[in-house]
């Protein structure tokens, strides 16, 4: 990849419904960064539809980003304009006018990514005898795990309904807002499949192999059913409080293992019922995997039963 000029593009049409002038953002800190992008925490003044000050997260590109990263960020912006669901991250505005970096403004989720949240709560859980009851308030209960699974299913059922395939569903891409509300995020890889049922992947750098369905690995086929496979991996991440899937298995060997029927074993604290759901999500045949609507129902009933 050849380094390019910093991204301050003016090739995109400004959308007056969402455009915010850069002067209305006060950047406070960097929440995290990847290879080509970063997420900033900022305070925004008078966002479209929200007068006054709002704490927000801002997605932007680093100087080494190229036109494909710019395209990804802009396509994420376009997709976010179309979505509206309590369990999907909400777009608040954007700065795309010439004369500065591109900023995509999204709601701030005070508890960070679900994966980091689960991992942060590990020690608290394992040392629960040694700590006082004040700290135990922060524990993750089996009910929380079910509630997360239910909320993520609801967000995904919505995305399925509007014909969006996420393609990178993983605990790292789910954000947690205060009140433990799950928000599906990171639409960078998402493609609108409205005209074409299965998006054929362009050759790209990093692919989340351990979250991918066999048909995505072999034929670059992405559908809501391949999202269901990834959701099965998210369930495994939930019950293991943010472990990395297929520990000890090299990504190069995974496809053949999966094709020969290998699946991750039941984590020791995982109920038979939940493990059964995971395995249904990991059906070799996409049509045999449950739908997200079915999963919403299933988790709703499990929550009601207190199981
Ligand atoms: O686990 P974290 O604290 O939560 O670290 C990552 C980091 O930025 C890089 O993605 C955090 N992050 C991303 N989007 C948001 C958001 N909308 N609200 C709060 N934190 C965010 C994420």
From TrEMBL:
ATP binds at residue 59. It is found in: Membrane. It comes from the Eukaryota. Residues 25-303 form the Protein kinase domain. This is Protein kinase domain-containing protein. It comes from Nezara viridula (Southern green stink bug). The lineage of its organism: Eukaryota, Metazoa, Ecdysozoa, Arthropoda, Hexapoda. The chain holds residues 507 to 813 of 894 of the full protein.
